[in-house]
Amino acid sequence: MNAFKDAGHLFRLVAVFVVGILAFFGMRAFLVPKSFGQYGHYRGDALAEVAAHPVNFAGHQACEDCHTDVLEKKKSGRHAHVNCEACHGALAKHAEDPGPVQPAKLDTAVLCVRCHEANIAKPKGFPQVASADHSTGLPCDTCHQPHSPAIDTGETAKVATKETAGGTK
Amino acid sequence: MSVTRRHMLLLLPAAAIAWKHVLAGTPEVSPNYKLSEHWWSMLIDLPKCIGCGNCVRACQTENDVPDGYFRTWVERYHVTDYDIENPHVDSPDGAKEGFPPSKEEGGKNFFVPKLCNHCADSPCTQVCPVGATFISPDGVVLIDKKYCLGCRYCVQACPYGCRFINPKTATAEKCTLCYHRITKGLTTACCEACPTGARQLADLKNPKDPIHEFLKTHSVQVLKPYMATHAKVFYNGLDGSVR
């Protein structure tokens, strides 16, 4: 036992280290969130938190489930691949509960020119007009039906325009 | 047994720890969504972009982006015939309301939508001192708002200028590739609102995704390939003048 006669201070030092290391791991277990390191050097729960953000755009599938008539009209026209919410805006609330939440009425004079106003930087094949010259201030849906914009000839055009005027303007 | 002051002092921290665990419950990522089955990217077909700004407005609506800040924006390039090194670029209010008529005639004119490139080797995640930004197992660069200190290292590190500090939360913010939508089987808000299909969400791990055929048959580039960020936003028909 003589070997440890003057070693008391060493034992105390070891004890201090042991307590220190235990305290470190104790604090670490308490302070570091459980999901930290689940996938990498970050909190795994953050993924679910980001994914929990509410959805505002319902997606065209949701629109098409109910509005099959509009889908039919769009199919034949050049707006076939334009999703509903591209013009009508975010309508997830309407898709959830169609009754009380109604889409806002659209103003074709504002809406159409966003895409179709002539601009030198637009692709050459894209249909563009200088709206001031093209329609002399009339709203676009006077002649064009937004869901299938090619101008019909004859009487069908007027009927279609009236329908559209009720629906979108 | 009566609760003494000594007992009370011991009980309070214990109760605090218990309450923390009660509050810690977090919602799950969508139940049928497997992180390991996806590797998200985006395709931007520049010859289709008409600079309408629908994507910018859709993003702001979907993600509550504060006014004057952008998770995606559209730039208009004007390149004169002989000066490809110095293009004139404008993006009025991020093209939120589209573009006014071009002032300059002639030369080359086109639009370039920009957003986070969701780099596979992203500089922004490498510089974060607290692990608040990371590449998710499905390939999306995300921010943990609760962990972010707002130190701005990542804002400086991003070679594409895609990050900003949200003035309300004072934390870093950027495009999440609409993580809340793509994990539910929807496309991103910008792709949903794009009228010409110039933006397409793509899943590189899905063998049926049309992206594979597109990448094989088109001249596709990423922005700043020399930064070795392994960006995953692919641009079709990208002009050499684009920065």
Helix content of chain A: 40-55%
Greatest contact between two chains: A-B, 43 and 60 residues
Mean pLDDT of chain B: 91
In spatial order, strands of the major sheet of chain B run: 9-1-11-10
Structural class of chain B: alpha+beta
Number of strands of chain B: 11
Shape of chain A: rod-shaped
Query: What is the straight-line distance between the termini of chain A?
Result: 100 Å
Q: Averaging pLDDT over every residue of chain A, what do you get?
A: 86
Rg of chain B, alpha carbons:
22 Å
Largest sheet of chain A: none
Oligomer: heterodimer
| CATH architectural label of chain B | 2-Layer Sandwich
User: Helical stretch count of chain A?
Assistant: 9
N→C terminal distance of chain B: 74 Å
CATH topology of chain B: Alpha-Beta Plaits
Order of helices and strands of chain A: HHHHHHHHH
Number of domains of chain A: 3
Strand content of chain A: under 5%
Descriptive report:
The complex is a heterodimer of chains A (169) and B (243). Chain A is mainly alpha-helical and 169 residues long. Chain A has helices spanning 8-31, 45-51, 60-66, 68-75, 84-88, 92-96, 108-116, 131-135, 155-168. Chain A has 3 domains: 2-51, no CATH class; 55-102, no CATH class; 105-169, no CATH class. The N and C termini of chain A lie far apart (100 Å). Chain B is of the alpha+beta class and 243 residues long. Chain B contains 7 helices and 11 strands. Chain B has helices spanning 5-23, 54-63, 123-127, 153-157, 179-182, 189-193, 211-217; strands at 40-45, 72-79, 88-90, 108-115, 133-135, 141-143, 164-165, 172-173, 199-203, 220-221, 233-236. In chain B, the strands form 4 sheets. A 4-stranded mixed sheet of chain B has the order 9-1-11-10, with no helix packed on it. A 3-stranded antiparallel sheet of chain B has the order 3-2-4, with helices on one face. The longest helix of chain B has 19 residues, at 5-23. The radius of gyration of chain B is 22 Å and the shape is elongated. The mean pLDDT of chain B is 91. The chains are: A mainly alpha (169), B alpha+beta (243). Chains A and B meet through helix 2 and helix 5 of A and helix 2, strand 2, strand 4, strand 5 and helix 5 of B.
